[in-house]
Amino acid sequence: MRTKMILGTAAAALFVSGCANMSDTQQRTATGAGIGALAGAVIGTATGGSTGTGAVIGAGVGALGTYIWSQNMEKQKREMEQATQGTGIGVTQTTDNQLKLDIPSDISFDTGRSDIKGNFAPVLDRFAASLRDNQNTDLRIVGHTDNTGSDAVNNPLSVERAVSTRNYLTARGVSGARIHVDGQGAYQPIASNASPAGRAQNRRVEIFVGERAR
After folding, report:
1. CATH number at residue 116
2. Which of 65, 90, 112 is the last residue of a domain?
3. Is the pTM of this model over 0.85?
4. pLDDT tens per residue, range 177-197
5. What pLDDT, in 10s, does the model give residues 86-99?
6. Which of 174, 86, 163 is nearest to 126 (CA)?
7. Where are the beta strands (DSSP E) in the chain?
8. Which helix (H) or strand (E) element contains residue 129?
């Protein structure tokens, strides 16, 4: 019953997205809501949570995920590429026009800790300056861990790392209202946890910056 209800919600959002009298931005936003609802329903079920709640959250995230790649975003990307050169931090443009920073654990946090390391601070200082120059952006900071230890340790640790990063930025003039934090624990590995090198890759923080369509 829940699945049918959620599929109906997502289908309705997708149907609305095709309405002829909607602007291109409105259509993309509504489509994002439908896709988000489907993804949220799947996540809610897979994690043992409420399918309905997952769909509602997913729809909200999808609806907010309409971003543009402006000259300001391109400038910010170039600045961060210069600031992170030689550090191992990845700076990329995502397919949905967000600026993504991949910060490995050897730059950001020591194993089992959430306090920011000294060599991460200058990068965040430069990042904060670029964010202050581009106020029409939203940020999402996501913390990750490897699979060493239990969820009871890893899940809050991943959130604490994201919160530490947010707090550092807000202390340097970035509005906390622009920043959403999340922690995924060990559930989104990008490498095998079977080796030390793979586990090191999985201990990371990701920062996404999206400029809202005006």
Report:
1. 3.30.1330.60
2. 65
3. no
4. 999 999 999 999 999 999 998
5. 889 999 999 999 99
6. 174
7. 67-68, 90-93, 98-104, 137-143, 179-183, 204-212
8. helix 121-133
